[in-house]
Design brief:
The protein has 111 residues and is mainly alpha-helical. The chain folds into two domains: 1-68; 69-111. Helices cover 84% and strands 0% of the residues. The protein is built from four helices and no strands. The chain has helices at 2-32, 38-64, 71-80, 86-110. Helix 1 (2-32) packs antiparallel against helix 2. The two termini are 51 Å apart. Residues 82-109 form a coiled coil. InterPro entries: PhaF_PhaI (IPR008769). Keywords: Coiled coil.
Length: 111
């Protein structure tokens, strides 16, 4: 679970970095084409940088506040999602073994 969370977090960091790079490139292109002054480009770039840092800090604070789930919380989530418990799987396994045994007996009688 922690590995998946790390992967999601790193993917988020990567997408933020990519977005920042692309946005910076767009600002540079607009300055080169004269659609923005150099001063406006710098201001916009600084604002973008502040927004990215602020967003990153919010994400880090949320990740830091995540606590591991205890057994009761996990069981509650399993119930809410209607997922199978180990006991359910064991019950199905037992039924399958009984059915396989019956099928095997029927096959042996037919021979």
């Amino acid at each position: 679970m922690l590995d998946e969370l790390k992967k999601v977090f790193l993917a988020g960091v990567g997408s933020v970095a990519y977005t920042y790079e692309k946005s910076s490139k767009i600002i540079e292109d607009m300055v080169e084409k004269g659609k923005l002054s150099t001063k406006e480009g710098k201001e916009l770039s600084e604002e973008l940088k502040r927004n990215m840092q602020s967003s990153g800090e919010k994400v880090v604070s949320k990740v830091d506040s995540i606590k591991p789930l205890n057994k009761n919380e996990v069981l509650f989530i399993i119930e809410e999602l209607n997922l199978a418990h180990q006991a359910d799987l064991n019950e199905v396994k037992e039924k399958m073994l009984k059915l396989e045994a019956k099928i095997s007996l029927l096959e042996n009688k037919q021979e």
